[in-house]
Amino acid sequence: MATQPLEMPKTWTTSPTATEALERALKENPQALREHKEKWDVSRSDIYFEDRWQPIFREMRAAGDLHKVENSPFGPHWNVVSHRAIQHIEALPDLYSSAEGITILDRLTDEQLAELGRDRFELPMFIAMDRPKHTGQRRTVAPKFTPSNMADMDTEIRQRTGELLDSLPRREVFDWVDKVSIELTTGMLAILFDFPWEDRRLLTFWSDWAGDTEIGLIRDLDLQRQGIIREMGAYFTRLWMERAQKEPTPDLISMMIHSPAMNQMSPEEYMGNLILLIVGGNDTTRNTMSGIVHAFDKFPDQRKLFEEQPDLIPNAVQECIRYQTPLAHMRRQATEDSEIFGQTVKAGEKLILWYLSANRDETVFENPDKLDITRENARRHLAFGYGIHRCVGARLAELQLKVLLEEMHKRRMRVHVAGNVERVRANFVHGFRKMEVEITEF
Q1: pLDDT at 7 over 60
Q2: 397-415 mean pLDDT
Q3: φ and ψ at 171, to 5 degrees?
Q4: Which residues are listed as membrane-spanning (predicted)?
């Protein structure tokens, strides 16, 4: 069980969520994010918040594998939209680097920082590193997610999931995101970090503030985010100092402490890797847990298949991950001039890999906008990335989702969307903030 809570200021109990803060800023100043002038500038968060991104990407895919955007608020970049182009780029990590950042948000130059009167605030993390440093740090945490460790964790995940599902109200409307998706994923993170159980919702709060790229375009919100991340760093630093005096344990913090590749990290690098593990372990699984319920409600024929054929659950997990795609994009930067499917990409140009689009690529997935839990090639999805940067916790995410579906089926639980559905307003994390549902039985 997780350690006791630390005596730390909990501004998260009075601070707005990242979404609330962004909505407030946009209401006060609708132009705060600057204008998106180009038709295919899919960096705008409103198309995801309003769930109308699908035809835009479909049109882009029909026109080619990648397209240049010159005047985005995030700076010029290539939108890479086809499955084959993303695989091609991810398979060449030396030619297409991760070291300049993993999201569409640019790192500000020294001149821009001086103009804004701001200090540089960068958080290195191993997903935003190239070989060999990436290799050493990834190998530190990878043992936590081996098949044998997953087998060991199955019983605990199943017990926690079953107890939570049994506690849910029947024939009464409640928020699935809050009561199920967030609770299961923050609980899992707390176990992985051996994090104080009483404070586990802090992990959700930090994840939301860290994962919203558009906040970086609004100075006051970005400064507020920096303060919140520093508070996170202070909390985790105390955990680090506490565990550095003890024998090694199997939690992620202790694994970092006793790793030659990670035990000399700067405070910024420690915070960066924490954010990677928190966002990667929280937002992705959380939003797929919500996406499954929403997709089954939208496609009742697939929900019926799930109810009648539980042997389809492992494939249903892959199809739901493909359909939801909880992280919309990742970023690479060309290290030299290259040709990609007829387009010339210059050294220094950034490429935004839209996994959201690749997972709806008609040349790979037949009728891609439909959920099909019998889809034979559902595992070809790119929601976890591809190549050396493929999600290190993919097996754990798959296990949590499989157990959730199995335990729902065991209880003959049918979940209906019965009220408000609020999506994330972001171009990076793709998911749900709220989903009012009601449970019946099949």
Answers
A1: no
A2: 98
A3: 55, 40
A4: none
Domain CATH code at residue 165:
1.10.630.10
Tell me whether residue 33 is in a domain. yes
Tokens for 366?
């037949």
Number of structural domains, the chain?
Answer: 1
pLDDT at 1: 36
Are 82 and 363 in contact, with CB atoms under 8 Å apart? yes
Q: Residue 299 domain-assigned? A: yes
pTM of the predicted structure, to 2 decimals = 0.89
Three-class SS string for the chain?
Answer: CCCCCCCCCCHHHCCCCHHHHHHHHHHHCCCCCCCCCCCCCCCCCHHHHCCCCHHHHHHHHHHCCEEEECCCCCCCEEEECCHHHHHHHHCCCCCEECCCCCCCCCCCCHHHHHHHCCCCCCCCCHHHCCCCHHHHHHHHHHHHHCHHHHHHHHHHHHHHHHHHHHHCCCCCCEEHHHHHHHHHHHHHHHHHHCCCHHHCHHHHHHHHHHHCHHHHHCHHHHHHHHHHHHHHHHHHHHHHHHHHCCCCCCCHHHHHHCCCCCCCCCHHHHHHHHHHHHHHHHHHHHHHHHHHHHHHHHCHHHHHHHHHCHHHHHHHHHHHHHHHCCECEEEEEECCCEEECCEEECCCCEEEEEHHHHCCCCCCCCCCCCCCCCCCCHHHCCCCCCHHHCCCCHHHHHHHHHHHHHHHHHCCEEEEEEEEEEECCCCCECCEEEEEEEEEEC
**348 confidence band (pLDDT: 50, 70, 90):** very high
**6 within a domain of the structure (yes/no):** no
What residues make up the domain containing 71? Answer: 11-441
Residues 236-247 pLDDT 10s:
999 999 999 999
Confidence of residue 13 (pLDDT cuts 50, 70, 90): low
Residue 127 counted as domain residue: yes
pLDDT tens, residue by residue, 124-141: 666 777 888 888 888 988
C-alpha triplet 99, 281, 155: angle, nearest 5°: 145
Give the pLDDT confidence score for residue 112 in this predicted structure: 56
Q: Return d(Cα 389, Cα 327) in angstroms, integer.
A: 14
**Residue 2, pLDDT score:** 44
φ, ψ at 92 (rounded to 5°)? -125, 70
